[in-house]
Design brief:
The protein has seven helices and 14 strands. It is of the alpha/beta class. The chain has a single domain, classed as TIM Barrel, CATH 3.20.20.
C-alpha cells in the first residue's frame, strides 16, 4: 500500500514497480537496493525477488483507494521509465494518477532518453510533477530531455550531489532538490557546490530544497545551510497554473 515516507520532500511513496539496475555513478550505493534486500530478508511479499525488476499489478489502484490527499513519490524503489517496463504499464500508472487527482505525484527518472521519447504521448496534468536525477555535470543532458516533455512542473534531484554545476541551465525548471549521499561508503559533497546551486536557483526564481548534507551518519550533519532550512517547493493555484513562492522556509526566514 502507499506508505508514509521519511523523505523530506514528499509525504508518501507508491511503488507499482520495484527493482532496478545501475545506469550511472549516482546509482553506486543505491538506497533502494539496500532497502529491497532488507525487505526480502524480512519476507515482504513484494520483494520476494529482491531488487529484480517486478511489475506490481496489485499496487496499481492504491492511490484511488487512498482518499486523504497526499504528495506521493512514485516508484521510490524503481524507475518507471526502465527499459523493461512496458509502455502499456506506464500508461496505466498515468491513468491512475489522472483518476486519483486529489493527490500530487512526483516522478523521478535517470532514464531521460526514454522519458523524452514517450513523454509527448503521456497524459500530463498539473498535479503530476516530473523530475530527473542528475548527480554531476556529465549528465546534464537529462535536463534537456526533461524540457522536451509536456510536464507542467519539472524538477531536478541533484542527489547524491557528486560534483559542481557551474552555469546550470534552469530554463523551464521549477524546482531543484540538492542532497549529499548518505549511508555506508557515502561520497563527500562540497559546501561550495551546494551554495552555488542555491544561488543560481535564487537568481532564476527557481524553488530550492536542501535535503541533507549526508554522510555515514546523516542525522549528525543535518539539513541547515547558512543557518536555515531550505524547504522551498513549487505549488499549484486553483486554476492549475504553477506559481512560485518567494520563500517557503522551515524555521527562520
Amino acid at each position: 500500500m502507499a506508505t508514509s515516507s521519511p523523505i523530506e520532500w514528499t509525504e508518501a511513496t507508491w511503488n507499482p514497480v520495484t527493482g532496478c539496475d545501475k545506469v550511472s555513478p549516482g546509482c553506486a550505493h543505491c538506497y533502494a537496493e539496500r532497502m529491497a534486500r532488507r525487505l526480502q530478508a524480512m519476507g515482504q511479499r513484494n520483494y520476494a525477488r529482491g531488487f529484480d525488476l517486478v511489475l506490481q499489478y496489485q499496487m496499481l489502484d492504491l492511490p484511488i483507494r487512498w482518499r486523504k490527499p497526499r504528495r506521493i513519490f512514485v516508484n521510490s524503489m524503481s524507475d518507471l521509465f526502465h527499459a523493461r517496463v512496458p509502455d502499456e504499464f506506464i500508461h496505466r500508472v498515468f491513468s491512475v494518477m489522472r483518476q486519483a487527482d486529489w493527490h500530487q505525484y512526483q516522478l523521478l527518472t535517470k532514464r531521460s532518453d526514454r522519458l523524452a521519447e514517450r513523454g509527448r504521448s503521456l497524459p500530463w496534468a498539473p498535479h503530476i510533477w516530473m523530475g530527473v536525477s542528475v548527480e554531476n555535470a556529465r549528465f546534464t543532458y537529462r535536463i534537456d530531455h526533461l524540457r522536451e516533455t509536456d510536464a507542467r512542473v519539472k524538477f531536478l534531484s541533484l542527489e547524491p550531489l557528486l560534483g559542481p554545476f557551474p552555469g546550470l541551465d534552469l530554463r523551464g525548471i521549477h524546482w531543484v532538490i540538492v542532497g549529499g549521499e548518505s549511508g555506508p561508503r557515502a561520497r563527500p559533497m562540497e559546501r561550495s557546490w551546494v551554495v552555488d546551486i542555491r544561488d543560481q536557483c535564487r537568481a532564476e526564481g527557481v524553488a530550492f530544497f536542501f535535503k541533507q548534507w549526508g554522510g555515514v551518519f546523516k542525522s549528525r550533519t543535518g539539513r541547515e545551510l547558512d543557518g536555515r532550512t531550505w524547504n522551498e517547493m513549487p505549488r499549484r493555484s486553483d486554476a492549475g497554473r504553477v506559481s512560485w513562492p518567494t520563500t517557503l522556509l522551515e524555521g527562520r526566514s
